[in-house]
Structures are given as C-alpha cells and as structure tokens.
Amino acid sequence: MNNQRTKEKIDRRNFLRSTAAVGAGLAFSGPRFAGTSPTVLGQTSGRKPDDINIALLGAGAQGYELMNACLKIPGIRFKALCDIWTAYNQRRVSRTLKAYRHEHNTYVDYQEMLDKEKDLDAVIIATPDFWHAEHAVACLKAGLDVYCEKEMSNTLEGAKKMLKAAKETGKLLQIGHQRRSNPRYIHCYEKLINGAKLLGRITTINGQWNRSKAACEDLGFPKNAVIDQPTLQKYGFKSMSQFRNWRWYKGLGGGPIVDLGSHQIDIYSWFLDANPKSVIASGGIDYWKGHDWYDNVMAIYEYETKQGIVRAFYQTITTNSSNGYFETFMGDQGTLVVSEAAGRGTVYREPWVPAENWEKWVKMGYLKIPIEKEEEKPATDAVLDVRESPKPPSYDVPVTMDNKPYHQPHLENFFDAVRGKAKLNCPAQIGYETAVTVLRVNEAVATGRKLEFKQGDFEV
C-alpha cells in the first residue's frame, strides 16, 4: 500500500516548494488530485496552495498542547486524529478541532489511518515514547513528513530505526526539542555565545528541572471513561493506571531524566557545539515507591571543546520545585542564565571585565540594561569576607517569545521546512545524538560508574 501510494501521489513537499513560483492564478492538475478538473488549487475545497494537511497521532496532554499551537499557525489543516482513549483524549481534541472547523476523521489504529487517509502531507506524533519508532517509521515510509515529540525513542534501537527511515525515504523528521526554535535560545547561541563571545571560555554548566510533589502525583482517570483491558494490552499497557503514568515505567518511558532532562541536556550540546565524552550519575527511587524509574537523578557530563574541558551538572527531582527549571552557562568573563520559562534570561558580567567592553553589545541590541530596582540595604555594616566576590553586574536578554506557546516556533519551523522555506532546527540526526546523550544517564545510574562516549556512538 505505502509504495503504491508514494508512486501515485505528487510529492507534496516538492509541490509546496514550487508554489512561490506558481503564482496565485496558475492552474494545477495531476495524479494527487485525480478525478478533479484543472482549477485554481486555492479554490478547491477552500484549500490554498501552501496549506498543509496533517494528522495528530496521540491526543493526550502533549498532543493537546501541540494541537493548540498548530491552531495558531495559518495554513495548517487537521484531517485525521488517532488515539486509543476514545472516551476522553480523542473526544476532547476532536471537539476542539470541530470548533475551529477542522473537518477530520478519527481512528484508534494508526495503520487504518494511514490506509484510509490519502490526502495527508505530514503527521504530528505525540504518543508515548515506546511507540515513537514504530509510528514514525510507518509514517515516513508512507511518504509523510513527521514531527515527533521527544524523546526520539525510549531505546537507541528505536531511534536508529527512525534515523535510518528518514535517510532512506528522504522525508523530514523533526524531533520536538522545541528550545532549538525558541527565539531567546537562538539569540543566546548566535549573538551572545558565538557572536559577541560574552562569556569568554565556557568552563562550567549547571542545569535543573525541579518539580514539586504535587506536580508528580500519579495521574488518575474518570471511572466512566476506562479503556477496556484487551485494547490496553494490545497497545502495550498492563492497566489504566500504567497507561496514564507510562513515563515512570521501564519499556514505556525513561523517567524524569528523559522526560524533562532531555530538553535541557540537548541545549548543553547545542551551545557547546559538542557531544559529551563521559557521564557519571546518581539517582534512585527514593520517594515515589511502585515506579520503575528513578524519581531523582544527578548527572555530571564532561565535554571536550576547542577551548578545553567543560564540566556540566544536571539534576531533576520530583519532590521540590525550588527555582523551577533553567540552564546556567559559566565562562571566565560572564554567565548566562536562561530558561524556557517566560521572562527568565539574564547575563552577568564578571566584575573584572570593564563595563565599556559590553557597552557596544547593548547598543547593538544584544543585551538590555535592566530596569533599576531599589538596592537592598545590608542588615549590618559588617565588612564582607575578603574571599567573597562582589555581585556581578547584570543585563537582560532582550528577546522573548512574543506570547507564543512554547511549541509554536518549533512547529512553525517544521511547517516552513515542509514548504521548502527553511531547514529543520532539530532533524533526526540531532535528535539521535541527544537520545544517546540522555539515555546513557539511566545506564550510568544503574552501573554506578563513569561511562565513556565514543564518536561512533553518535553515528548511524
């Protein structure tokens, strides 16, 4: 079915790339639209030349967020929705799509969706991690471009299959490390670190994602909307509770270090332009009994960069939300504290660096002088210890998300790539390298020893 479908239809991505040259009034006809007379495509069923027909595969919490972000992007048309929880996930998302006038079909089995939907251009995959490889490979081989949520897969074998399928089919595969499309992160990478080199030589990185106990309680479910046991087992779940909390179970997810940490550890490698050379980690099931995966992990990576060794610490905990989530890049001339959280982006200049060295970057818009706040007066007139350093001067990162949902710029980048107007910010190769980097942490915890990376580990 898939080979025949690929042969019979026009490569939609190539068509989209050509629309800029086609012109608004040019007629189009071809096998993709067999059975219709030549006409202006934008007038066929209300479809404009650069509209993209998509399916959502996985309509849980993450799928719902991605759908809402897509609804804010012009030219995106949901044509199909697939989820096994018909009484809740599927119903909720379908209701929203209908409210926005997206006429679509609903499915439980993704193969049925691929067999029946003949007018799709792309698929958004937001199913549990252990399904990513099978779903992505099938969609790629069906001739569709794919946006797949991170983690790329819960296994390296699965991630390899996805990367190979993307290479073999030539279709796009974007992995959902959305910070790679975040304007603030792009500004920090391009302007502050590589352009102005404000941090100097980066020597140390700290990062964390701390979640409170209340945010990590097991998810429940409406008793009148339970998935029947045969369906649960068919799709890999032992119970409704496991279905709802799959991230905590081996074989399904990878625990908080994969679920949360991969977003930020991906930034470590991006900003350093390097993959790690080693990792050592400690963690355990110290609080949330009954789970398979560690509820807290602390890891230390070593990166070998052109400027020298960088040691990078990362922690994720699930009992306390102190300071939330952020990444800190420390160099011998300055420090960058950045987060996906709105309004959190500050650069600190080491006091020994002359202020005039940074003034031109303020004038160029790389930095912003923060609004002055009333200085807090010390409680006493005690003299500081001579070993204490003065508080470093701070500057704001002047770029924000403009109130867009966190996932929207990354989805925009994907759809622009489908139209031939951009390159993917997180293609399969980068997603695979991050998967290697992050999945190794759980192995390091299990073995209790330092694990080395080889360059071949990041290649397929």
Tell me what you see in this structure.
The chain has 460 residues and is α/β, with parallel strands linked by helices. Helices cover 34% and strands 19% of the residues. It is built from 15 helices and 15 strands. The protein has helices at 2-8, 12-22, 61-70, 86-99, 110-116, 129-141, 156-169, 183-195, 229-234, 240-244, 256-259, 261-272, 356-363, 408-418, 428-447, and strands at residues 52-57, 76-82, 105-107, 122-125, 145-148, 173-175, 202-210, 276-284, 296-305, 308-317, 325-331, 334-338, 345-349, 394-396, 451-452. Helix 6 (129-141) packs parallel to helix 7 and helix 7 (156-169) packs antiparallel against helix 15.
List the helices and strands and how they pair.
Elements: H1 2-8, H2 12-22, E1 52-57, H3 61-70, E2 76-82, H4 86-99, E3 105-107, H5 110-116, E4 122-125, H6 129-141, E5 145-148, H7 156-169, E6 173-175, H8 183-195, E7 202-210, H9 229-234, H10 240-244, H11 256-259, H12 261-272, E8 276-284, E9 296-305, E10 308-317, E11 325-331, E12 334-338, E13 345-349, H13 356-363, E14 394-396, H14 408-418, H15 428-447, E15 451-452
Parallel strand pairs: 1-2, 1-4, 2-3, 4-5, 5-6, 7-10
Antiparallel strand pairs: 7-11, 8-9, 8-15, 9-10, 11-12, 12-13, 13-14
Helix pairs in contact: 6-7, 7-15, 12-15
